[in-house]
Amino acid sequence: VGVVIGLLVDNYFNTKPFGLIIFFILGSFAGLLNVYRVMRRIEKQ
Description:
The structure is a single chain. This protein is mainly alpha-helical and 45 residues long. It is 87% helix and 0% strand. It is rod-shaped. The chain crosses the membrane at residues 18-36. Keywords: Membrane, Transmembrane, Transmembrane helix.
């Protein structure tokens, strides 16, 4: 999802490849945060 948003932002503002890089990093961070939350939930059970 982050890559798609980054590509759309880049095409709209003509800022290639900065939007792609920024949203890729944000998307990766969000994914890792979700994995961390799931692991903590599993650990508590």
